[in-house]
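Table S2 (text version). Query chain:
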Amino acid sequence: MSYDHYTGLKVVKTEDGIAEVVMGAEGKLPAADHKGHGELAEIWRDLDRDDDVRVVIVRGQAKGFSAGGTLDLVQDMADHFEHRARVWKEGRDLVYNIINCSKIVISAINGPAVGGGLAVALMADISIATKNARLIDGHTRLGVAAGDHAAIIWPLLCGMAKAKLHLLLSDEVSGAEAERIGLVSLAVEEGELMNKAYEVARQLAAGPQTALRWTKYSLNNWLRQAGPIFDNSLSLEILGFTGPDMREGLAAVKERRAPEFPKDSPI
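Corresponding structure-token output:
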């Protein structure tokens, strides 16, 4: 299996049965542009077909896990139907491809984790964060519905009350707090992140693969049952890219100011 055609992702087979998926360019906080967003959705199909891989560790660069989509991507989604339609499909594929990937996926989360990167971090089978990591679902801050993964998994992970609190307010959640409320599997000190990720990965890579994969498949039926909830939330997010809330949210980000959203809503 060759991964040479990926430009925003690097796949490194580090040990027997273990592969790292590294997001972004070295020394930079990973951000998904048009091509990178599609790659983040597609990589799980290739990993699923790769007989050399039993466990996947996905991580960002030294500066953090993910910065979300680039402003150019967001602006083009606001301006062009074809971009919204493509990103809708990629956002759907990202979530379902991780769910359906037979290989065990471990996320190693450091620094900020935002946008599509946060979706990867939390859709992973086992999520390990540094205690000072910063998990931010900033959709409502931008002026669109929290759609790209949140509705399918946050209530299962941390309960509806905490999910609504953090998603409606676009609150930042530290890695330590995320572990406390059940949003991530483990929280560790910053210098221990990759050691812990590999400790878990080696144990899984040496384990009974059929049993592990069938256990993952069975547990993920909880997520498959929530598929219609996710599909609806993602569609409403994409619809929001056509509205005034999102345009004000994007302008505020570009101008580095607090947004002044319209007080009225059509619904």
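Notes on Table S2: The longest helix spans residues 81-100. The chain has a mean pLDDT of 95.
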